[in-house]
Structure formats: structure tokens, C-alpha cells
Amino acid sequence: MGGTMRATRRPAAPVMPPDDAGPKRRDVIVRPVPLAMVWQGPGSPHAAIAVPGVSLGSGDVLVAVEFATVCPVDAATVRGDGTANVPLVLGHEQVGRVAAIGDGAETADGARLIVGMRVVWSRRIGCGECDACRAGSPSGCATAREYGSDRLRRGWELSGGFATHVLVRAGTAIITVPEIVPAAVLAPVPCATALAAAALEIVAEATEVDGESVVVVGAGLVGLTIAAMLADEGARVVMVEADAVRRSRAVKFGAVSAVCDLTAAAADGRVIAAVVDTDGGQEAARPHAAVRSHDAVVISTGAATGGAITIVDRPDPRHLAAAVGFISNAWYRFPFERLVAERYPLERLDVALRAASDTPAVRVGIETASR
Q: Where are the beta strands (DSSP E) in the chain?
């Protein structure tokens, strides 16, 4: 079960056509009519809009959302933390099934897509032309679009995961996922799981982890996933988490111990090969003065001697592929499904978002498949 899980193949980044471009477009009428939940700013409830017709360009895919989860970024946005390009459709953690296909649409590894396939897709849509995109790293694309973050626009109303369908645009990395894996486990893969895979890649490239002590700060979904990934690589994982309820979960995800601060983590005198900080809110546990973020991982390698600091906040297609590979073989060994403790229908999205801020649950789920 161990061994490396890092993806070596870099999926190609096709050029993303503009909204109204392309000689070959396919107009699709969907029944029941797709609905998207539109958010207009702090204090405003979500409003459902109907999108009866979808125009698919070359490489576009219409996906029926099976299940979505509320990322801390979504909850923070609704609370008014930071800025948002309103109106927009939030949500970027979801799994779904292909409902309609534009000309030439394919998976990240070049396989032909077929209606009914179960898929996840990347958060960002690179331009396909810049140096970063051509290198397989759209995380560095200056003009990339992002699901659940871009402003609502005509022709791309189905742009976020809090909807019955998402119009997955050309240039997005799409990866098929196994039927056997629970939807609640797969939904966070484009964000939390892929971010964990990106963090593991950096740690493994910087230092040997097999048999070494690695400290993970924060027992949220990203932290628990990194702990499980590191444990599979043979690392001795120590979890640092201030909250007792979250701390109690750590051992089930591969940690050898869970403590409340870094001082306790180093109490046994072992050399710490790396510190992976997934929780900007735990000031007392932080090994450095990094920028606070709801969706960033800060990695300190050679932590005992004040080594290199790396911040990871945008996974690339190869990390999504690695995340799918990991979760497909780990979902039954680690209790990921139990981390989605509360679930709400799409029409109760506002209640779900409030619950995501108030509940000790790691993730809150949004069910859309029953429509």
C-alpha cells in the first residue's frame, strides 16, 4: 500500500476558446432544467436560476453534479472574508457524471469522454498558451478562470459546484473516478485532496520521509489527508491540533500521535524532517510567520535548522491525478467518508454554509443527485 503516489505525467493544457468562439458548437436542452445557486454578496441569500439551454463549444463538457462539499473558502467568502466577484456560483469541490459532450472533449490523459462517465475536474482553467500552461502548471497562469470564483456571465451560468450541473470548459483537466468510491470522498478531490498531493510532492522532493518524523499542523481535511499520504510513504506523522475533537481523529488517518502544540511535537527529541502547516488559524502552533490563508499549505523542510519555506495554494493537473490515484486506494483504509458529517439538499445551501462555519464537522455535504 506504500510506495510513491506522485504523478509523473503532465496532462496537456488545451487552448481554452472564448465564450462565443468556435465553429462547432452544440446546443443542449436539459431536462429537468439545470439550476445554479447564485450568491450576490454578504447578507444576501442564494437565489436559484434556471439554465434550460447550454451551448457546448469544442472541448466543453456538461456534467451533472452528484455531490458537492463546502470548502472553508466557500464558508469564508459568504461570511465576507476577502473579496468576491459577485454575482457568482460558489463551489469547487464536487463529483459528477458526464451529461453532454462538446466536439473533441477528452480526459486529462487523452481518453475519449463518454456520457455517463463519473468524473472530477480541476479548479482552474488555464489559457493553454502561456509558459505555465504549456509546462502543465496552470496554477501559474495569470489569466486563468476558476470554478466557484469567477463572476457569473452569460453563457457560463453553470460555473460553480453549487448547482445541479457544471459547464466544464475546454482547458480543464478532467479525470474519471471509480464507481465504488463514495461521492462524499470524491467531492473534495479537486481542492483538498489535490492540495495535499501537491504538498506531499514538495516534501518528498526536499527530504526523505520514509522512517522520518514529519509534523502536520491542523487536523482539517487537508491536514488529515496529508497525514494519510505521508503515512503511506512510511513517515512517522505527528499531528498538531489545538481543537480536542479534531485532534482525536488524527490517529485514524495515520498519525502516530496528536498533540496540541509544536513544543509537545518535538518533546521526544527526534529530528523533524519537515513541518506541513495546513491551518493558518493556529497561531500558537505555527512554525513561522507565513501569510494566513484558508486554502494554502505552508511547508518548512529542514525545520529543525530553519530550512526552506514553500507555500502551496494551487494544485496542478498532475496533483489532481495523484489525488485520484491516492483516494481510489485509500478511501476504505481511512475513514474519509465520516468527515462529511452533515448533508443538505441544494435548496438549503444557505443553511449548509452556516453549518460549515459553526459545526465541528470537517466538511458539510450538498446533495443534488436526488433532483
A: 26-29, 35-38, 47-50, 53-56, 61-69, 93-101, 118-121, 124-125, 145-146, 165-168, 174-176, 213-217, 236-240, 257-259, 272-277, 297-301, 309-312, 340-345, 363-367
